[in-house]
Design brief:
The complex is a heterodimer. Chain A is mostly beta strands. Chain A has one helix at residues 97-100, and strands at 5-7, 10-13, 19-24, 31-37, 44-50, 53-57, 64-68, 74-78, 87-94, 103-104, 108-112. The chains are: A mainly beta, B mainly beta.
């Protein structure tokens, strides 16, 4: 049983560009959340998707947007990239976050130059 | 707003010994969930243990156990019989029961090194 799959694993973008990160949740999981982990820090919540709707959002600007597809896979889009957006982006999925916690992917390392 | 504090940036322990990682949190809620996650160099966050705030009994998973002190808002992780594979970053995390349910709030982590 595959866990959470994220692509790409590494990415280098230029300031001002746009980027799309992709996530396939663990089989059977319908809730997907995205986290940003800066170097040496704990992950910070970006947003959560359930049934193709954004259910919760953290303290991130509108440059960060997302989408969930009918098969529960998800995308994270970041527009107008800033140097400060360089981080590890983690996707996490769950059937019930309070009951089971989350299963995390290995992340996408985004470097903005 | 809830906050999670891990006061030990780095710790080390000899193989086969016991180590305790500290975590405190701040919340005005009565019902919530607490987690410990492990992040090895592979970057994938792995759930170590989960505690429900309304349960007084401390959670245990094999060599991992917690000391949950609700009044003190403390949630420490004890690793017994430490193994080289336990070397990783350990993150304490908080999740609300309702409202912002499902949103994990993480501490800054503790880097644990297990030495042979």
């Amino acid at each position: 049983d595959a866990g959470v799959t994220q692509s790409p694993t590494h990415l280098i973008k230029t300031r001002g560009q746009q980027v799309t990160l992709r996530c396939s949740p663990k089989s059977g999981h319908d809730t997907v959340s995205w986290y940003q982990q800066a170097l040496g820090q704990g992950p910070q919540f970006i947003f959560q998707y359930y049934e193709e709707e954004e259910r919760q959002r953290g303290n991130f600007p509108d440059r960060f947007s997302g989408h969930q597809f009918p098969n529960y896979s998800s995308e994270l889009n970041v527009n107008a990239l800033l140097l400060g957006d360089s981080a590890l982006y983690l996707c996490a999925s769950s059937l019930d976050p309070t009951l089971y916690g989350y299963t995390f992917g290995s992340g996408t390392r985004l470097t903005v130059v | 707003a809830q906050t999670v504090t891990q006061s030990q940036p780095e710790m080390s322990v000899q193989e086969a010994e016991t180590v305790t990682l500290s975590c405190t949190y701040d919340t005005s809620e009565n019902n919530y969930y607490l987690f410990w996650y492990k992040q090895p160099p592979s970057r994938q966050m792995i759930l170590v243990i989960r505690q429900e705030a309304y349960k007084q009994q401390n959670a245990t998973e094999n060599r991992f156990s917690v000391n949950f002190q609700k009044a003190a808002k403390s949630f420490s992780l004890k690793i017994s019989d430490s193994q080289l594979g336990d070397t990783a970053m350990y993150f304490c995390a908080f999740m609300n029961y309702g409202g912002s349910q499902g949103n994990l709030i993480f501490g800054k982590g503790t880097k644990l090194s297990v030495k042979p």
